[in-house]
Design a protein that fits this description.
This protein has 312 residues and is α/β, with parallel strands linked by helices. It has 2 domains: 15-183, P-loop containing nucleotide triphosphate hydrolases (Rossmann fold, 3-Layer(aba) Sandwich); 198-309, GMP Synthetase, Chain A, domain 3, CATH 3.30.300.20. The protein has helices at residues 29-37, 80-95, 111-121, 143-153, 170-179, 198-213, 249-256, 261-278, 298-306, and strands spanning 15-23, 55-61, 64-70, 98-104, 127-132, 158-161, 182-183, 223-231, 237-246, 281-290. The strands form 2 sheets. Strands 1, 2, 3, 4, 5, 6 and 7 form a 7-stranded mixed sheet that branches. Helix 6 (198-213) runs antiparallel to helix 8 (261-278). It is globular and about 55 Å long.
């Protein structure tokens, strides 16, 4: 009789579960996940719709393992790309063991917030309301009416004021997450931060620099793809050739800038960030490629959707 593999032993305090972070654009979902992971995994920008895919982050502690899903902000879709983003957020919601609704208390409560609140309230899983950006509210008594809005739904196990940027309340919120997970062994290696391939994360970091260096509507019309990635044996140098997609020749002109100064600034900032991330010297070549109406192009959107999973 062949020997059987020993079964995983789960301690009384060891837990495992998946957690969806949902909210409107710019609510602070990515900042919160980075805070909990104590690593910069998700790119962060003050521009809405920075997150386009369901980004997975893995936190392993002595008390258990949590898989976070950082989701695209809930908004009214105007393109096929936006509809795919909303689909990704909905799938994360249905897959999660716990749902965290991240709400920006520094902004007025509007119809979009009401829609999201009703949407999350229909989910049959434990829900937490994390009222973010309390550091931007000088008079804390103004938080009370907002807390009451969430309390009246009766949908949330806890309503916790937090600041993802300063860390205030983030520890309490993480404790609330763990409190609602079921006992179970870790699914992933404790050293693993994410399952996304390095090339996808490099594209994201380059796109972050595009967001930082450009303005107005241009960031929504851009994407980044890797054209070439060369690592020479015995060398700490990686050569990366990437293209920034634009929808119009006019957008390309803005991205390149007068005398190529804009694309140069993006490249310098991206290279410095990538060298710190990859812990290697980086030779980065950036090009701007016009793909008309790529946000409506099924082929391009499918390629971008496969990138987080390393599928070519």
């Amino acid at each position: 009789m062949s020997e059987q593999e020993p079964e995983a032993v789960v301690t009384a305090t060891e837990k495992f579960g998946t957690v969806a972070l949902v909210g409107r654009p710019n609510a602070g979902k990515s900042t919160l996940m980075n805070r909990w992971l104590e690593e910069k995994l998700a790119i962060v920008s003050d521009k809405p719709q920075t997150t386009r895919h369901r980004l997975m982050g893995i936190l392993t502690e002595p008390r258990g393992q949590v898989v976070f899903y950082d989701t695209p902000g809930i908004h009214k879709p105007q393109h096929k790309m936006n509809r795919r983003m909303l689909k990704s957020a909905r799938e994360a919601l249905s897959d999660a063991d716990v749902v965290c609704l991240i709400h920006d208390v520094s902004q007025a409560f509007g119809t979009g917030d009401k829609y999201l609140l009703e949407w999350v309230s229909e989910v049959d899983t434990p829900r937490l309301a994390l009222l973010n950006k309390v550091d931007l509210v000088r008079d804390k008594t103004k938080l009370l009416p907002r807390i009451e809005i969430f309390a009246q739904t009766g949908a949330f196990a806890e309503i916790i004021p937090i600041s993802a940027s300063t860390g205030d309340g983030a520890g309490r919120a993480l404790d609330a997450v763990f409190a609602r997970l079921e006992p179970g062994p870790p699914l992933y290696d404790p050293e693993l931060l994410t399952v996304h391939p390095e090339r996808f994360l490099v594209c994201e970091r380059i796109r972050e620099k595009v967001l930082e260096q450009t303005r107005d509507e241009l960031p929504f019309s851009t994407a980044v793809v890797i054209d070439a990635w060369i690592e020479e044996p015995g060398s700490d140098l990686v050569r990366i050739c990437a293209s920034i997609l634009a929808e119009r020749p006019g957008q390309k002109k803005i991205l390149v800038g007068a005398g190529g100064q804009q694309i140069k600034a993006i490249g310098i900032a991206a290279r410095q960030d990538l060298e710190a991330y990859l812990e290697k010297r980086v030779f980065l070549e950036l090009n701007v490629r016009v793909e008309r109406d790529w946000r409506e192009n099924e082929r391009i959107l499918s390629e971008l959707d496969r990138a987080p999973f390393g599928v070519g």
